[in-house]
Amino acid sequence: MCLAVTETFFDDAPRSAATGGKHESEPRLWWRPPGHHDVFTLIPDASGTSTFHFAPFDPAQGAPEMTWKGHAVRTERPDVGTLPHVPTAEVQDTTREAHLANVSAALDAIATGELDKVVVSRTRVLPEALPPETVFQHLCDMHPRALVYLMHHPVEGTWCGATPELLLRAQQHDVDTVSLAGTRRDGSQASWTDKERQEQHVVTEHVLDVLSEMGSTNLSIHGPHDRAYGALTHLETRISAHFMGDLHQLAKALHPTPAVCGRPVDQAAAFIRTKEQHNRTYYAGFLGWSSPMGCAYYVNLRCARWADNGVVLFAGGGIVEGSVPEDEWLETEAKLQSFAPAFLP
Predict the structure, then answer these.
(1) How many domains does the chain have?
(2) How far apart (Å, rounded) are the C-alpha atoms in residues 285 and 261?
(3) I need a surface site. Which of 79, 227, 285, 340 has the fewest CB within 10 A?
(4) What is the pLDDT of residue 119?
(5) Beta strand segments in the chain, E
(6) Within 10 A of 327 (CB to CB), how many other CB atoms are there?
(7) For the domain that residue 118 is a member of, what is the CATH number?
């Protein structure tokens, strides 16, 4: 279904003639859909048929949901120097000690029954990094099966990422989504542990509950099966359904899933606000496009933001009963390493 939806939105669109002539205060967007070679951008137009959405992880932390309406067109990859610098607040590295302390606090909350699962994230700051236009090109080449994007906003700054995780895709009333959790590193052939399968099951149950509560019918489950992402492998269950309602409202109901937040969602989000020293803003939010024909939204993982003190990379891991703090640190290291090379000179 992925290619069919993408073709419905874009394959008949004209190619953008040029990227120049934009005022520096205007937002800019480029994205490369999974499995595609073409790059797309949005030509702003209030009467356009496509809308691009960029939503935060937790609106309570102050980052707004942004939307751009217009015409999605094929374009060239942006040249270096296309984007101006936007001053943004400095962000500090999450130390190993701080991350281990947060994982331990999460395990305590799980032991007392406050949480079933919570995702603990961290940052890594690269003081020296390539320009965002170059990073976008590298990520397109490195991750052909991911949604790769570059977003520049005059207030929110510059973001770039390559996400493997679908939130919601729809063509007319046929929708599909995934439950993605668990991480295996370095080509390991070991069996998935009970902890990893339980982590993935929690996400699957949440997605099924939301789909049912929103009135979806004809639910179908496929998996779990292995999903490769560079040197990493995840457990993925694909879920399809029939849905007659508002697709964007369905996406907002699914977000944030336990794959990026936890369960119960409200308690997990409160834990994250209290324990994490950084504001996630758009990390672990969602992004994508919609049109009268359907939508394609992805979770904003494997992403980074340009800050005044360098480029801030984000990664996290799901904590459930049985999680080992040191292993969780190593998992975030592996996730960072899966895309950090694209940023390095």
Answers:
(1) 1
(2) 10
(3) 79
(4) 97
(5) 28-32, 39-44, 50-55, 66-75, 117-126, 147-153, 157-163, 166-171, 174-185, 217-229, 232-242, 262-263, 286-291, 294-299, 303-307, 310-319
(6) 12
(7) 3.60.120.10
58, 272 contact by CB (below 8 A): yes
pLDDT on residue 19: 38
Residue type, 213: E
End-to-end CA distance of the chain: 37
Tell me the per-residue pLDDT of 151-209, one tens digit each, with 9 for 90 and over.
999 999 999 999 989 999 999 899 999 988 777 776 666 788 888 888 888 889 999 99
Cis peptide before 224 (omega within 30 of 0): yes
DSSP track, 195-252: HHHHHHHHHHHHHHHHHHHTT-EEEEEEEEEEEEETTEEEEEEEEEEE--S-HHHHHH
Q: Which residues contact 160 (CB under 8 A, 6 or more apart)?
A: 132, 135, 136, 139, 149, 150, 151, 303, 304
The pTM (predicted TM-score) of the whole model is: 0.89
Cα dist. 143→177, 254, 343 in Å?
20, 25, 14
Contact residues for 29 (Cβ-Cβ < 8 A; gap 6+): 41, 42, 52, 68, 149, 150, 151, 152
Distance CA 146, CA 151 (A): 16
Query: CB–CB of 290/55 below 8 Å?
Result: no
Show the tokens assigned to 5.
């939806």
For tokens 């339980």, the residue is: 198
- DSSP 8-state code for residue 259: T
| Residue span of the structural domain in which 32 resides | 2-343
DSSP string, 88-127: ----PPPPHHHHHHHHHHHHHHHHTTS-SEEEEEEEEEES
Q: Give residue 287's pLDDT band: very low, low, confident or very high (50, 70, 90).
A: very high
pLDDT above 60 (res 101): yes
Report residue 205: phi and psi, to 5°.
Answer: -60, -40
297-314 tens-digit pLDDT: 999 999 999 999 999 999
User: How many Å apart are CA 283 and CA 101, to the nearest integer?
Assistant: 21
User: Half-sphere exposure (CA, 13 Å, Cβ side) for 3?
Assistant: 5
CA torsion, ordered 320, 325, 327, 331, to nearest 10 deg: 70
Contact between 260 and 316 under an 8 Å Cβ cutoff? The reply is yes
